[in-house]
Amino acid sequence: MTHFTTLTEAMQDLQGRGYTEEFAPEKDHIKVTTKDDVRYGSDEFKVDEFHRFEGTSDPGDEMTLYAISCNNGVKGLFVSPQGTYSNEVSPELMAKFNLSDRAEVNTDGAVQPLTPTS
Q1: If we measure between CA atoms, which residue out of 104, 107, 115 comes closest to residue 1?
Q2: CA-to-CA distance for 64 and 53, rounded, in angstroms?
Q3: Domain boundaries, the chain
Q4: How do beta strands 21-26 and 75-81 pair?
Q5: Which residues contact 116 (CB under 8 A, 6 or more apart)?
Q6: What is the CA 34 to chain-centroid distance, rounded?
Q7: What is the DSSP secondary-structure string of the chain?
């Protein structure tokens, strides 16, 4: 798997591979951010791969990018600042993003520092 130097670079690559929707977590499901009525429960999607980025000096810059496929073929991205959503969603939904013990998820997205843009 490619190791990206910036979050933007990773997002552009994944969008080119068909991950075109943007997802956000909400209680016990993820929702498509551009469509108020489109939601997927934890049993309706899977995480295909992820890429984690760390800030060079500010831990607040830590981000994880998830590539998600839904059972109906919809594919998209979810960008999560580290720990931001942990108190806002159900434990079942958070468990979908715990990838340490899932062989089917491409976890080669090693931690890479974010490259400052000028």
Answers
A1: 107
A2: 6
A3: 7-101
A4: parallel
A5: 56
A6: 16
A7: -PPPSSHHHHHHHHHHTT--EEEEEEBTEEEETT-TT-EEEGGGEEEEEEEEEE-SS-GGG-EEEEEEEETTS-EEEEEEETTTTTTTB-HHHHHHT--TT-TTSB-----EEPPPP-
pLDDT tens-place string over residues 69-78: 999 999 999 9
Which pTM was predicted? 0.74
Separation of alpha carbons 51 and 44, rounded Å: 21
Strand pairing category for 45-54 and 112-113: parallel
What are the Cα distances from residue 118, in Å, to 70, 115?
36, 10
C-alpha distance from residue 45 to each of 31, 33, 39, 75, 118 (Å):
11, 16, 10, 9, 37
9-63 pLDDT tens trace: 999 999 999 999 999 888 889 999 988 789 999 899 998 988 888 766 555 567 8
